[in-house]
Amino acid sequence: LVTRMRPFTSTIFAEMTALATRTGAVNLGQGFPDTDGPASMLRVAKESIDAGLNQYPPGPGMPELRQAVAEHRARYGTHYDPDTEVLVTVGATEAVAAALLGLVEPGDEVVLVEPYYDSYAASVALAGATRRSVGLVEEPGTGRLGLDVDALRAAVTPKTRAVLVNSPHNPTGTVFTRDELAAVARLCVEHDLVAITDEVYEHLVFDGREHLPLAAFPGMRERTVTISGAGKSFNCTGWKIGWVCAPAGLVGAVRAAKQFLTFVGGAPFQPAVAHALRHELGWVDDLRASLEDKRSRLSAGLAEAGFAVRPSEGTYFVTADVRPLGFTDGLELCRELPGRIGVAGVPVQVFTDHPEAWQHLVRFAFCKRDEVLDEAVRRLRGLG
Ligand code: PMP
Ligand code: GLN
């Protein structure tokens, strides 16, 4: 194995899901829903298979999906030409990798917000670039994990090429505010940086919050590669349909890398996702409302079990401080939890370059049926 990939041999999701399966634990580790997406979307996928849409789709993605993605993005006031400014990818994961491979030179620096989704560091390494991670900071009083704008500014050097921003944020559940995003935008404009945004949880924002795409901020459309996907909005994480929206020059760079990673993917799922984007956003509103309740349900349960729970403003996830229960190391605890009480979580420190600063937090997924969450909480109460 090449040196640059040695830190990335196994993902925490594989480890914790295997452990959960082996021990019969309730798996609140890997984030995936345990119910299906909208029935009409599933029907279109089945009909597409029956209609013979089983060969390679067009390189940029099927026109009807690119059109639906462009129409959907217009709701934020950002407009893209479906023919030249939209690219369908094999999930957001491929989009992030292809964006970095197509836009970042070896030796360039990429700024990540820490903790970061695990594929970012691996993709930066694949591109031969160097990551500089800037930690979220806990806000006094609320415990919200917010953006440290000064630290972000300090992380930019003459070698910085891109900033990768994920909001709503995995693993913390933070939804960046207008002020936080405006600060990122100003920094990108000032230093002529490319912004790569991961917005896969765009619809999963709680308590009346609004999802704000970075591309909609002044000076940002021309320099932003916006990434999203269907998995989280329509409960179809296994379909791996993602997309990129950006000006033609940037999309062309992403496509150059993408075409040699997978070429294309997901033929029968593309019309199904196009249908869902056009006709099932009401279903997504219900999903959001249900996840908001689940967020509150699991957060309350974790607090009862003795964790210090951090606010979750969106996504599938809530983080909890394990120190009030007498533990110090979340990784150790997550390796122990399934065997000891039958619940799996994910330690936040594995998403960082500073594990010692993050070892007190564990991430739990609440995108599960209520009875599953209640059973997890019942078991977690045994910890205290
Ligand atoms: N980005 C984030 C922040 C995620 O949480 C996930 C899914 N866990 C992905 C990207 C990957 O998305 P996809 O399955 O579409 O590749
Ligand atoms: N995105 C999901 C999570 O954060 C799972 C992704 C994966 O298994 N690679 O839990």
UniProtKB/TrEMBL annotation:
It comes from the Bacteria. Residues 26-380 form the Aminotransferase class I/classII large domain. This is Aminotransferase. GO terms for molecular function: transaminase activity. InterPro entries: Aminotransferase_I/II_large, Kynurenine-oxoglutarate_AT, PyrdxlP-dep_Trfase, PyrdxlP-dep_Trfase_major, PyrdxlP-dep_Trfase_small. It comes from Saccharothrix yanglingensis. The lineage of its organism: Bacteria, Bacillati, Actinomycetota, Actinomycetes, Pseudonocardiales. Transmembrane segments: none annotated. Its cofactor is pyridoxal 5'-phosphate. Keywords: Aminotransferase, Pyridoxal phosphate, Transferase.
